[in-house]
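The instructor's notes for this session suggest beginning with a concrete chain rather than abstract definitions. Hand out the sequence below and ask the class to guess, before any prediction is shown, which regions might be ordered.
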Amino acid sequence: MSIFYAIVGIKHFTNPLWFVKIVPPVLPYKFALVYISGFFEIVFGVLLLFPTSRHVAGWGLILLLIAIFPANIYLAQTNGAALNTTPLIAWGRLPFQFVFIAIAYWHTKL
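After discussion, reveal the predicted structure:
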């Protein structure tokens, strides 16, 4: 999970436009939101590596995953058009957010 979050976090900086496309239109400062979420994905991903900081990383990831859930909802509302993907993928992403939250919670117990 650490590597997953770090890589996705880095992608927020190397390809921010991809993430900006799914920031709901009502939210301002789209690029800033993408960079901030990417920064925290990297930080919490790295913190998962260390037993002494896993608890904090897990709770941080839970909060982050809740905070970015509106982007997944927006993608589903567009039936995938925001990222030029299929409605099945757009709607299918929603339940996986809960799986990631459960895994992050598991990390708080390690």
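Then share the key points. The chain has a mean pLDDT of 95. Residues 54-77 form the longest helix (24 residues).
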